Amino acid sequence: MDRGPEGKNDVPMNDRGVSEISARDGAGADEDPAPMSTLALLDGYPGSALRVSAAGDILAGNSRATGIAALLRNGDLPDVLDLISAARQSAAIAAGTVSVPTDRGDILLEITIVPEQGAEHFLMLARDLTMERNLRSALVESRQRYKDLVEVSSDFYWETDPEGTFVFVSPRGGLGYATDELIERSGADFVVDPESFSPLPFVSQRPLEDVEMWLRAKDAETVCMLVSCVPLYREEGEQREWSGTRGVCRDVTEERSSEAALSRARHREQLLGYIVSSVRDELDPQQMLTAAATTTARALGVAGCRIYRQTEPDKVLVAAEYGNTEDLDELDQTIPGLSSGIEVVPMEIGPWQVLAVATQYRQTVNGAITIWKSRKAEKWDDDHLILIADIANQLGIANEQVTNHERIVALSRTDSMTGMLNRRAFFEEELPRRVSRLERNRQSAALFYVDMDNFKRVNDVHGHQKGDDAIMMLRDMLLDFSRPGDVIARLGGDEFAMWLDGISAEVAEVRAGALIEKSLPMRALSGDDDNPLGISVGIAVFEPDSKESLDDLLARADGAMYAIKNAGKGGFHMALPAGEAGDNSA
After folding, report:
1. Most buried among 288, 492, 508, 513, by the most CB within 10 A?
2. Angle between helices 382-413 and 253-280 in degrees, nearest 10
3. Cis peptide bond prior to 162, omega within 30° of 0
4. Is 291 left (phi over 0), alpha (psi -120 to 50) or beta?
């Protein structure tokens, strides 16, 4: 048989599109020409079809066999000869697959060898299985990928019947249930408030996407799910009938919890910012704490708030409070026992549930903050605990500022040596306030001017240390002589003043005599016997009906003191009443 030039792929065709081998093509005289029925079969076969000899020579073929004829002629299909041999020996159909390598990958052919009568000629039918194989592989891979994703996913996939009953659930189950625990159970049984969904995804006849639902899990907790679904339909003749729903539930509980936690954190930050701003807006440090107590109670929606300051170890005072403070007598006693560290302590006192936490500055406790609400109200939640601790951090700084302010004020108002009020605080702050109060209450008072006699001689003879001892001795004597409501001031050098509320001129004169008597031991510090150390006292009595100015009152007391000085020292002199003519000299 003439195969033509090397690489020639053409198979001569007749007018029906089927190739034929004739005597002029080199066929032997004994070659059996293809019968018309065979030619018709080749022509009608939808794929590649050839008529071959037992040796694999091509006798005829249809128009679709050009490619495979070329492969067979070039010896690229050696397995075909084995199939022809098997068909010849068995006189039966032989079939198999043949893989043909190409630049674009392997081509898979299904070859069927059909022997003709006598088993000397054969029909070779070829079908390209490459696409089918690739599709099958892709489908298997896709199914495996889907299976792997389902098995590792925290989501659960499901299918329900028209009644909403689970008929399929992914292997891992869902909501803490195993797959077989969910099958044949209604999806609505797990939904919190199913009536609020229309339609419920488990019985939806239309597609739904990312419907947020809360479902009950096996452990009685609720979980948040995003549910998506598509309806299923069954074709029955020309009818299209809904047969159920298929969908997926994705657990977003942690996401929602994180979102809720972030929202609460932002809310706490806003409340804390509001409280801190109200504190910083106050110029007076004491008012800062009052503002803090007020805004804290309002912002947290509690019945009351109380802020404490620690004045010395194990001793606290109420610095500010707001709200209902009834039946909280025991609260103050619990504050000194609060430990350092931002640890919120819950307690119950009377009708109240209380939260208390110490305030600190540089790891040192300097006070506390407490809030309370009714025992009948809901228990404290985490937001209250976190927020009150954050407020305590800020109040620790505020308490320190108040302490520093008081320290500065005290330094500006007191004499550094004796600790008594200084001249400015006594004349500009204390006396005007007391005089105003006495005028309203219609009460009298006495102003004592006390000056040391021969004090300079003590410094000259014994030195300034002895002079300081003398001043401190007089201070202690005045403190012992005065009452808790009285006020003492060091006006400068060896000069003191003392204000005694609520006493008459007669009582003042008796007290002055007793003071002179009490001062006699001071002579032990005298510079010499000829100049004994002592005191001279000038007294002016304030009467609320006199309409006397403060300056006139001070002048009367000063004049009385110099009167006794000029009279020989070591005694006291009572100034004439306001408005009376006369001399205040002794």
Report:
1. 288
2. 20
3. no
4. alpha
Residue 414 has a CB neighbour count (10 Å cut-off) of: 16
363: which 2 tokens?
């790891």
CB 41 within 8 A of CB 49: yes
Lowest mean pLDDT among 163-172, 279-288, 328-337: 279-288
CA gap 317, 335 in Å, rounded? 10
Question: Which of 327, 150, 347, 179 lies closest to 250 in space, CA to CA?
Answer: 150
- The closest of 271, 314, 265 to 292, measured between CA atoms, is 271
pTM for this entry: 0.53
Distance separating alpha carbons of residues 476 and 504, to the nearest angstrom: 24
Q: What is the 3-state secondary structure (H, E, C) of 490-553?
A: EEECCEEEEEEECCCHHHHHHHHHHHHHHCHHHHHHCCECCECCEEEEEEEEECCCCCCCHHHH
User: Is it the case that residue 23 has pLDDT exceeding 60?
Assistant: no
Residue 200 has which token pair?
A: 């419920």
The CA distance from 352 to 2, in Å, is 113
User: Residue 423 in contact with residue 489, Cβ under 8 Å?
Assistant: yes
Joined together, the tokens standing for residue 59 give 């006798």
Q: Which amino acid is at 443?
A: Q
**Residue 13: pLDDT over 60:** no
Q: Which of 556, 563, 555, 507 is nearest to 536 (CA)?
A: 563
How far, in Å, CA of 435 to CA of 445, rounded?
Answer: 9
> Quick one: tokens of 37?
């029925």
Q: Is the Cβ–Cβ distance between 399 and 387 less than 8 Å? A: no
Phi, psi of 272 (to 5 degrees): -65, -40
Q: Report the number of secondary-structure helices (H) and strands (E) in the chain.
A: 15, 20
- pLDDT for 327-353, tens place per residue? 998 898 888 877 766 689 999 999 999
| Cα 247 from Cα 307, distance rounded (Å) | 57
Q: What is the mean pLDDT of residues 229-256?
A: 90
- Look at residue 2 and give its three-state secondary structure: coil
Measured between alpha carbons, how far is 309 from 320 in angstroms, rounded to an integer?
Answer: 9
Chain centroid, CA 390 distance in Å: 12
Asked if 54 and 120 count as a contact pair (C-beta separation under 8 A), the reply is: yes
